[in-house]
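Narrative of activities, Objective 1.

The group set out to show that a structural description can be obtained from nothing but a protein's sequence at a throughput compatible with the screening campaign. Below is one input-output pair from the validation batch, recorded exactly as produced.
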Amino acid sequence: MSRWLLPEGISDVLPTEAAQIERLRRALLDLYHSYGYEQVIPPLIEYLDSLLTGTGHDLDLRTFKLVDQLSGRQLGLRADITPQTARIDAHILNRNGVARLCYAGAVLHTRPGHPLAAREPLQVGAELYGFGGLAADAEIQCLAAKSLRAAGVRRVHFDLGHTGITRALLALDPAAAALVDDLLSALGAKDVSALRDLTGPLQAATRDALLALVRLHGLPADVLSQARRQLPPVPAIIRALDELAWLAQRLPADQVTIDLSDQHGYRYYTGVNFAAYGEAPAALLRGGRYDDIGRAFGRARPATGFSIDMRELTRGNDLISQQVILAPAVDDPALVECVARLRRQGEVVVQQLDSSDVHGAATVSRELRQVDGRWQVVART
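Output recorded for this entry:
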């Protein structure tokens, strides 16, 4: 094997793509800052029992593990920054009331999320702690939609779900407890045949309601009206449907749909959850309410947020090359001042060391040339 080969799912980010990702990172963090979100930078590695607290088995399987040679304890390389941010809120900041935090950094996965995914996503996100009302969910969803707009996504589609509905249905029938994993898998795949077989031992009302979930996806008005007719009128389900109706009306997206059979993050999210899409079928971001995560850190705080993989968000986009001005490398104070002024104005100026120095990642259409004794930017010939 050649020494320069990288592990499967791991790749370098080359100059033009790196420049686009960095511009996006800055734009998103500035957006979150304008809403009052404070940036945190958690460590890449920490003790495994802290890193996996409250995150469930799925994240455990995706986390690289190793032994700390100083303490002998097991360490983990983070697979998600959200649990670390919850730890900071609950245990380090320890603030009363609302806390808004954001972050950006690399995470590492033992296996890719899908066949084209990188195993080292560059994650950016925002989390709101300390307020359990729907206004917090609305703020986070609005910020998520604006994140996609900032990335140049022209048509934003949000798909809403609510884990509280499935939880309420499964709680109606004690026999469902032994079938949870299989039921969630069948619901997520919208596999009516498998779901019908699995629900055979359950009470008729529970079976009918679970089978109804598979058909409850589409535009909010249609889905919610059908759900109110077909699902049991228990308080938790009524409340969940009301929450979805309220949020769907306020989402600043081009299209909003609801899918009550989507079980993504069932063991993690505790209320409204969402995925956002552009033109491609893969989700560009995911988020939702996850109130239980802080309990293990000593403070059971309400929480809602989202995260984005910036490499996924820029995948397939037209990469914009830098517009560079070439300048000769001559010892002239007037040229030095001209170059410094252009750089202060945000221009990229490369002083050529020789004729081979053309800054390969850039679009070079201008140069500095002396015209009538003054250095001026002119079209490159």
